[in-house]
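Page 42, continued from yesterday. The earlier attempt failed because a stray header line got pasted into the input along with the sequence. Redoing it now with the clean sequence only.
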Amino acid sequence: MKKAFIILGLFIGGIAACTSTKTGETTLEVAPETATVRYQCPMKCQGDTAYTTAGKCPVCKMDLKEVKAE
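This time it went through. Structure tokens are written below.
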């Protein structure tokens, strides 16, 4: 019985660790197609994903660069 509680506790702890998010992390907004100024990662970590606000790339943490709409 004691072994079952330990396994259950580890399982629940593992799920909690996998689903938790960092506090204080800013969320970037994905830019709609009609926006005139967009920001993208210079490394294109997420392909052509663009954001409406300047910040850091959520993948590589580089500063997003301004890209003019075509």
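Notes: The radius of gyration is 19 Å.
Reminder to self: strip header lines before submitting.
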